[in-house]
Design a protein that fits this description.
Helix content is about 10%, strand content about 40%. The protein contains 10 helices and 86 strands. The strands form 23 sheets. It has a 5-stranded mixed β-sheet with strand order 9-16-15-11-12, with no helix packed on it. The longest helix is centred in the C-terminal third of the chain and has 22 residues.
Length: about 1250
């Protein structure tokens, strides 16, 4: 027994381990003890018996090694003793390759048997695999410290082994052998597969090799390489050789047979478990001697082996040679000879038949040949050798252990039998196997049997006849089994058996139950839904649905498209329903088909044993049916029970149990029991099941109907009934029904039907009038038999619902009305119900009128899948309303309504219109990039979009608030559109659109720059402008000193704030603040000494800000103040200086003989001197020239002008601060000769 636990270990050197082993070896057993044990084993082997014993010598050695390692470890480093609080403990025990030993195993904690059901979920897990019994304990705690032991038993003896587990508290990280560093180092060193296994194609009688190589040398713990075929561990044999050299491993089969076909896998151990590679080996049929002959059968097996007969079975070949297989020839060979002797003259038509006339004690092998019209196949692989022995012999031998279980004495029960002359008759004559062409009879030996050898006579009689005749005229029966052939079809026979010894013949046994020959086995339907998926360029994955009745396997066939020849893919039946077919030709197309291999066989084992109820000395057991019934009807089940405190299993029933529930009696209260079962069909009894869980026999109850209870239900026609069954009735018995203990029920409301031992009261109407207490009594019986039942309103309601479902069955809804909008905007309405028959009817009603399928309203009705579908094109207001699908399939009907009105309709129509527009949009010119804005570093706002699928005649237009924009751009090469806003203002708020169109359709993209989007643009402008703001500049002015910063584009989002010596400034008084589109300024009017200091401008963009500062003090302030005063004085002078403010035009044109008036406004302090000039000469005001002065308004008048008055006139004003001249050109023209300038001016107006 080896122990693995996740205790922390300090790192050991090789020297430490060597010392620990040497110390441990000093405590080995003495040499005398070893010699005694070896002598006992040799003696047992000489007697032909194999007894298993598990001593604890190796365990003692292991424990000593661990103890001394711990001693060395603690001395080296006490701090290395650490454990996890929750870890996994595992103990493993090597068992013999015996199912009996594994089933008899029990595991204990401190002497108490471990029951996983009584522990927390997942705490204990027990496994028995590859001869290894394992106990896993999860989430270990201090309470798990205990002595754990295991006991195993089989017919040859028992064994015991134990281990002590100590769980300590966790104090720190892992170290030593449990550390992650150590584990990772092992992972880095371990070898793995260099590449995967590849499929192998071989042929019968030819060798094949599977080969794999590894990435590095195998570690010491990786040398245990295992090969498997279909999950079965393979070992070396005379035909099979397994090698592992350096970095390579191989499996070679020297002479292949079809039984060698299958999934092969190779597995190497790794630190985390194991690594595996898998491939399929195909074994083709060898060439037949006759062209067109079928392939050879396979899997020849022997069953029900007796002293002189057995039953032989095999599997039909996958390749029939092109014509159906007509039957099979069987040959036998006595081991030690090379002579094969035919067993049948005429071909056997089934794949199972009895073989009689064999000699007891001899060993035989069998093989089978298939035959069709073309000829006979090659022989199958020979069966395993089988020795003809009496199966009852082993039951007549007792093994008595002695010498502390080291030896046994075999005693034959024959020596203990009383002396009997004339034997007793056999018992329990029955049919153990029933087929179309034979019946196998079986019976039990008489008890007591007597010491003399027995043989038997078998007699048969047609059922109901008293005439008996011998059934074994020329075949002596030396065992308790006999095959009967050539029974007449349609007739039933009874059989009886007589015992014969040297003293005489016994009385005949009791006749068997009537037995008829079996019916012909109907073939299973082929698998459905065969699908293929491409795997690689030379392989295809084929998948199919399993039939309801699971077959023995599947044969797969393929055919290249364009050819007529089907090729077999596999020659051994597949157990899966998904298979990868390799070796195909690239570029070729193939068709695949699948065939069920379903020749009737014994059923597989029942499963899922459960304890339904338990009494003091009985248990009611239930189970599930076998997965494979063997291609025929199940006849019943046999049960075995096993007290875990004993070795042997005991049969529970002699006759098969028809139901899957059975009460096992005569059990011991408080004992633990296991159960197993066999299923039986007409072929025979199948394999034994795995043992059930261990159940304790202790009383507990579970609600179950009594045997004499009134059954209430609904019959097939929907009538509610009350039924009572009484097996104790006799011919004169009667069933008497009463209602409410007042007399018989009203015959107008009920009908009573009596048949055999059952009476049925049927309610004709089942209304509230039928509520009450119903009683039934059976007359003329030994005991009073009666029962009653109260029919309550609640129960009646449930029964009436069931009745309604039976009388008016509803088609089951799987998925109610669903709505899909398809790509083009079509609307799909669909629902799914259960699968319907081809005769099912559909009526689709829309707003009270039945719809028929049209191009715009297409109706699809898939009966096989239960799909109802309506596809509506151009979904519009006319499609608003209710849709009702009325379905009828035989009696079953149902209807389902969908209301498309109100918001539901509006939302659906909007979605359909949107998808329709989207579909049309994508098939004409359309935008692939929607309209979006972008702010450049120059603070320009760019609106961009991009169109696709444009033609030469496609147009691209820009709009602002529904008005065309002429300044928008479009690049026809790239499809890009651009609208540039150089300086955005509030006037640019609005809705921008870009539209593309041509004869295929139109698409539009728009951008709303009225709310959030406009604010976002201003924020982005603020960000760029704040980052672009120039350092503060100082500019003296006539009014004061101006401090300013230039920006690229000012917006209110920048929140300009001024500070003087870190104190915030507000506008007012001598301080003025303002902004322009490109400037932020502060104007200090009439500056004084108090205005000196540091000035700071703070600008914001979002939550971030930027500060600009300048120091206006010292020389900077003095210079600015001086320049201000200068500018102020200059401004004053400019204000007082004589000036011509306004009034004179540049040119004055007038027709002759008219009066010309020239007026202007002057200013100046003191009042300026005024002088007029004509052509640089002073004008004298007399006669026609006059000047009028009214304050600052000066007017000169020229009467009756003539051509001599044309010229350049000017006014000169002058005072002490300065002077200024205003000029005008006067042009006089004659009547009728209007100057060109005047004509052009009038024409433009």
């Amino acid at each position: 027994m080896s122990i693995c636990y996740s205790e922390e270990e300090a790192g050991f050197t090789l020297m430490d381990l060597s010392i620990a082993s040497a110390l441990a070896l000093t405590s080995e057993a003495s040499r005398t003890t070893k010699l005694k044990q070896e002598a006992a084993v040799l003696e047992l082997e000489k007697r032909g018996q194999k007894r298993v014993r598990f001593g604890n010598e190796m365990e003692k050695l292991e424990k000593a090694v661990i103890r001394h390692c711990r001693f060395l470890r603690v001395r080296a480093d006490k701090k290395a003793l650490r454990r996890k609080q929750a870890h996994r403990f595992q103990c493993a025990l090597k068992l013999p390759n015996s199912s009996a030993a594994r089933r008899g195993a029990g595991q204990y904690k401190n002497g108490v048997r471990i029951d996983p059901r009584l522990a927390p979920a997942g705490k204990y897990r027990m496994k028995s695999e590859f001869g290894m019994l394992t106990l896993d304990i999860s989430r270990c705690s201090l309470e798990d410290s205990a002595e754990y032991s295991v006991e195993v038993r089989n017919p040859y003896g028992e064994a015991y082994s134990f281990a002590t587990v100590i769980v300590r508290k966790y104090y720190g990280k892992e170290s030593g052998f449990d550390s992650e560093i150590y584990k990772r180092s092992l992972r880095d060193l371990e070898a793995n597969f260099a590449y995967g296994l590849k499929p192998v194609f071989s042929r019968e009688k030819e060798p094949f090799t599977l080969f794999c190589s590894f990435t590095s040398d195998l570690q010491e713990y990786q040398h245990d390489i295992c090969w498997f075929r279909d999950g079965e561990l393979l070992k070396d044999s005379d035909r099979r050789q397994i090698k592992c050299v350096d970095r390579e491993a191989s499996l070679t089969v020297s002479c292949a047979c079809k039984e060698d076909e299958g999934f092969y896998s190779v597995r190497i151990p790794t630190h985390d478990g194991h690594s595996e590679q898998r491939a399929y080996v195909f074994v083709r049929d060898a060439a037949a001697e006759t062209a067109g002959a079928p392939g050879s059968p396979l899997s020849v097996q022997c069953h029900n082996v007796n002293k002189d007969s057995l039953v032989l079975s095999w599997v039909t070949p996958s390749d029939n040679g092109g014509s159906p297989v007509l039957g099979y020839f069987i040959e036998r060979c006595e081991v030690g000879t090379e002579e094969w002797v035919p067993c049948n003259d005429m071909p056997v038509k089934t794949c199972r038949t009895p073989i009689v006339g064999l000699e007891g004690g001899k060993t035989y092998q069998f093989r089978v040949k298939a035959v069709n019209q073309a000829g006979i196949s090659n022989p199958s692989k020979a069966s395993d050798p089988v020795t003809m022995t009496d199966p009852n012999e082993s039951k007549r031998v007792m093994n008595i252990p002695y010498d502390d279980g080291m030896r046994t004495i075999a005693v034959s029960k024959d020596e203990l039998e009383p002396k009997i002359t004339i034997p007793l008759p056999p018992t329990n004559v029955r049919a153990s196997e029933v087929r179309e062409d034979y019946v196998v009879l079986a019976w039990d030996e008489p008890d007591p049997r007597g010491k003399e050898p027995l043989s038997y006579y078998v007699e048969k009689s047609i059922a109901g006849s008293l005439s008996w005749q011998m059934a074994n005229l020329d075949i002596p029966v030396n065992c308790t089994q006999f095959a009967v052939f050539d029974l007449a079809k349609g007739k039933s026979y009874c059989f009886r058996v007589k015992s014969v010894n040297k003293y005489g013949v016994s009385e005949p046994s009791l006749p068997s139950e009537p037995i008829s020959s079996g019916e012909k086995i109907a073939p299973l339907p082929p698998p459905s839904q065969v699908l293929t998926f491409r795997d690689t360029n030379t392989s295809v994955v084929v998948q199919w649905n399993k039939p309801k009745e699971e077959p023995l396997g599947y044969y797969l066939y393929c055919k290249e498209v364009g050819t007529d020849e089907w090729q077999t893919v596999n020659n051994k039946p597949l157990q899966c329903n998904r298979f990868t077919v390799p070796g195909l030709k690239t570029g070729k197309e193939y068709v695949f088909c699948v065939k069920c291999v379903n020749e009737a066989a014994c059923p597989s084992a029942p499963r899922g044993f459960a304890l339904l109820s338990c009494g003091k000395d009985n248990m009611t057991i239930g189970w599930k049916p076998p997965r494979r019934k063997g291609g025929t009807t199940l006849l019943g089940y046999f049960l075995d029970q096993h007290d875990v405190s004993e070795v042997d299993w005991h049969e529970v029933n002699i006759k098969p149990i028809a139901q899957r529930v059975y009460t096992v009696t005569n059990l011991d209260e408080g004992h633990f029991y296991e159960f197993r079962g066999y299923a039986m069909n007409v072929v025979g009894v199948g394999k034994v099941s795995e043992p059930s869980d261990v159940f304790k026999c202790e009383e507990w109850t579970m609600p179950e109907p009594g045997t004499n209870e009134i059954e209430v239900g609904v019959d097939e026609e929907g009538f509610i009934y009350l039924a009572f069954e009484a097996p104790e009735v006799v011919d004169t018995s009667k069933f008497i029904w009463t209602k409410d203990y007042e007399g018989p029920p009203n015959p107008d409301r009920v009908q009573i039907v009596d048949k055999d031992d059952k009476s049925k009261l049927i309610l004709k109407y089942a209304t509230e009038r039928d509520l009450g207490t119903y009683s039934v009594e059976v007359t003329d019986t030994d005991e009073d038999i009666s029962a009653s039942h109260v029919l309550t309103p609640e129960e009646l309601d449930k029964l009436r619902k069931i009745s309604q479902e039976i009388r008016n069955p509803l088609i089951e809804l799987i998925s109610g009305w669903n709505i899909d909008v398809l790509e083009k905007g079509d609307v799909r309405l669909w629902l799914e119900v259960e699968k319907l028959s081809p005769e099912a009817e559909l009526h689709l009603i829309f707003n009270g009128k039945e719809l028929s399928s049209t191009p715009t309203h297409k109706i699809n009705f898939d009966r096989a899948n239960g799909l109802v579908e309506l596809i509506i094109q151009d979904f519009c207001e006319d499609d608003k309303g209710t849709y009702t699908a009325q379905l009828k399939d035989g009696k079953a009907e149902n209807q389902f309504t969908l209301a498309l009105v109100g918001d539901d309709f509006d939302k659906l129509k909007a979605e359909a219109d949107a998808k329709k527009r989207e579909w049309k949009r994508k098939h004409g010119p359309h935008f692939i990039e929607q309209l979006q804005w972008k702010v450049t570093e120059e603070c320009e706002v760019l609106l961009t979009c991009k169109a696709a699928n444009m033609k030469k005649d496609s147009t691209f237009k820009w709009f602002f608030d529904s008005k065309a924009c002429s300044d928008g751009q479009y690049d026809s090469k790239t499809g890009s559109g651009l609208l540039r806003i150089k300086k955005i203002t509030a006037a640019d708020k609005g809705l921008y659109k870009a539209v593309v169109s041509d004869d295929r359709g139109e698409d539009m993209t728009q951008l709303d720059l009225t709310k959030q989007a406009f604010d976002d643009i201003l924020k982005e402008l603020a960000r760029i402008s704040v980052l672009s703001a120039s350092p503060l500049k100082v500019q003296p002015t006539a009014e004061g000193i101006k401090i300013y910063s230039t920006v690229k584009y000012y917006t209110d989002a920048m929140k300009a704030t001024w500070y003087h010596n870190d104190k915030r400034l507000d506008a007012g008084g001598r301080l003025k603040m303002g902004t322009t589109m490109d400037q932020v300024w502060l104007h200090i009017l009439d500056p004084t000494e108090s205005d000196k200091g540091k000035y700071t401008l703070e600008l914001f963009h979002g939550k971030e800000s930027r500060k600009l500062s300048t120091d206006l003090s010292g020389k900077a302030f003095d210079d600015a103040l001086a320049e201000h005063q200068r500018l102020k004085q200059a401004a004053l002078v400019e204000e007082l200086r004589a000036k011509v403010v306004r009034g004179l035009p540049d040119v004055a044109t007038i027709m002759e003989n008219k009066t010309l008036c020239l007026t202007c406004i002057i200013s100046g302090d003191p009042y300026p001197e005024i002088t007029w000039y004509k052509n640089e000469k002073v004008v004298t005001f007399q006669d026609r020239y006059k000047m009028e002065v009214k304050g600052t308004v000066i007017t000169i008048t020229i009467e009756n002008v003539g051509s001599e008055d044309s010229g350049k006139f000017s006014i000169h004003v002058k005072n002490k601060w300065g002077s200024e001249t205003g000029r005008v050109t006067v042009s006089v023209y004659k009547r009728g000769k209007e100057p060109k300038e005047l004509r052009d001016e009038r024409a433009s107006v």
